[in-house]
Amino acid sequence: MMKKKLLFIYNPLAGKSKIKNWLSSIIEYFVKGDYEVVIYATTGRKDAKNIVMDCLSRETYDLVVCSGGDGTLNEVIGGIMHSEQNICIGYIPSGTTNDFAYNLKLPKNLPKAAKVVLTGEEFPCDVGIINGEYFTYTAAFGLFTDASYETPQTTKNMLGKLAYILEGVKRLPNWKSYHMEITCGDRVINDNFIYGMVANSISVGGIKGLTGKDVQLDDGQFEGIFIKMPQNVMDFQSIINDLLKGNLNSDHIFSFPVKEILLTSEEMVPWSIDGEYGGEFQTVNIANLQQAIKIIRNKEEIL
Ligand SMILES: Nc1ncnc2c1ncn2[C@@H]1O[C@H](COP(=O)(O)OP(=O)(O)OP(=O)(O)O)[C@@H](O)[C@H]1O
């Protein structure tokens, strides 16, 4: 009988090379699950996406499994979206921040996460598209968004989460705001923003709850959050208070569901997509592609 085929792609450097100790047991587990396993280690940016596109164009697979951080997952999802096969994805989170893993209730322990790949349930999940590129859970600009991608991977591994925090704090005194026009449905907003995010996740940048309580990953809608430039210290304090209280509709913060959104600015705005640098744009179009991918999530609460 023909064996089922599994394509396994991992980032060997993600999260302090955590995968290295577990590689053999993970592969054995898939083999025992009756899969023929094709394995690739990624060697740099966009590699995971290219591997997926290349492999899926040549052969039929039953499952694609990736291991790495949110960046690797983003690339694998992008590769699948660009290919003809709407193949199901299994994910073994091994990055520094694994925001998306939280949504899927995936265990932090790698062999346990591998087990979920074969025992979990297929979940039809929304995918975002920003100016033609796919994203899994967040597209953002402004404050803190450049913290993760401006830190090279080696430094990021050494410092772990601290890197993000330090990078962010360092930036506090020279906040940059962007004048933008935001169009979403009937809503048109013109203002100066220090931060904006369109997200489909409970956890963003390792912070849980920022996107509110009603995050549904398959409802065809993202959460949009936009923070205006504070004019003085009091404004700044009330933004912090609002964020801490989860009050996302205030004098300084706009938040609303997003199916499609258009953002225009007179200057180039750098964007962060799934926690990695995503390019600079004057015009940004974002849309939610409802239930566009199949991803395996844990059936049990084990967090
Ligand atoms: N061998 C490699 N060397 C350098 N960069 C790589 C390599 N393989 C993949 N990458 C790139 O590194 C980026 C980040 O990887 P990934 O998201 O897997 O891990 P991480 O940075 O440790 O975790 P996180 O993104 O959750 O913080 C990805 O965009 C990926 O393209």
TrEMBL record:
Transmembrane segments: none
GO molecular function, one term: ATP binding
GO biological process: phospholipid biosynthetic process
Alphabetical list of Pfam families matching this protein: DAGK_cat
Stretches assigned to coiled coil: none
Residues annotated as domain DAGKc: 1-134
Database matches in PROSITE patterns: DAGK (PS50146)
Record SMART domains: DAGKc
Cellular component, GO, one term: plasma membrane
Cofactor(s) required, per the database record: Mg(2+)
Keywords: Kinase, Lipid biosynthesis, Lipid metabolism, Magnesium, Metal-binding, Phospholipid biosynthesis, Phospholipid metabolism, Transferase
Entry similarity comment: Belongs to the diacylglycerol/lipid kinase family.
Protein name according to UniProt: YegS/Rv2252/BmrU family lipid kinase
